[in-house]
Specification:
Helix content is 21%, strand content 25%. The chain is of the alpha/beta class. It has a seven-stranded mixed sheet with strand order 3-2-1-4-5-7-6, sandwiched between helices. β4, α4 and β5 form a beta-alpha-beta unit.
Length: 219
């Protein structure tokens, strides 16, 4: 996701001057309507191709075989950029059933969970947990990081992608600063971090590959 489709009621840049993070809404019906109306289909042809490739490379850096949880997966755009033969299990989590129904391909070993992120109760662990353009849709953008810290397998890590705006007061940027501060103060291990910027437009993203301080590590 890159801030949402044009006209979306849920775009972070439509509320860039919000001072109170609690004003972010999780409205299942609104998400369902937007996916059913096809407002998110443009993500499959998104101009941020390079960003997806960096994210995919980080995911596959775990090893030749891995499990992946895609938090706020939408209709599974990330799957188009992965070597699926190296993903032994994929879990897609999204609030919109319409989005999950549109995911292709669907494999027997994978699972798809329709739930608000904050209500999801993990029953397993994953090698990589992806937060791809989703944290600024939460009431508290760092709460999913806390929520899933114990859901990582040994040597597992988080991959975080967040869209940046030019305006330092933009809502996206406020969320990004909060995530950066949490990662630093919680003592997360910074495995990698990059900024990707398109030269032809003011579009930019910040990507983080991090491991919680108490994350299990193999000797």
């Amino acid at each position: 996701m890159v801030g949402g489709p044009e006209g979306s009621l849920l775009r972070p840049d439509n509320c860039f001057l919000f001072a109170d993070m609690s004003l972010v809404k999780q409205d299942r019906a609104a998400w369902e309507n937007e996916y059913q109306a096809g407002k998110w289909e443009n993500l499959a042809n998104s101009p941020d191709f390079a960003r997806y490739k960096v994210v995919a490379g980080w995911i596959h850096s775990f090893g030749p075989s891995l499990s992946l949880l895609d938090v706020g997966c939408g209709h599974g755009v990330m799957l188009q950029h992965l070597h699926l033969e190296r993903i032994n299990h994929f879990t897609g989590l999204d609030i919109a059933e319409s989005a999950l129904n549109a995911i292709q391909p669907k494999r027997e070993q994978d699972s798809y969970v329709c739930s608000p992120i904050e209500e999801f109760k993990p029953s397993r662990k994953w090698d990589v947990i992806l937060f791809n353009e989703v944290l600024y849709y939460m009431h508290d953008p760092v709460s999913p990081l806390r929520q899933f810290e114990k859901s990582l397998s040994p040597n597992g890590f988080f991959v975080i992608s967040m869209h940046k705006k030019n305006n330092p007061l933009a809502f996206n940027n406020k969320c990004l600063r909060k995530v950066r501060r949490f990662v630093r103060e919680a003592g997360y291990e910074m495995l990698d971090g990059v900024e990707i910027r398109r030269l032809a437009s003011p579009t930019a993203w910040e990507l983080l590959k991090v491991r919680p301080r108490n994350g299990a590590r193999q000797p």
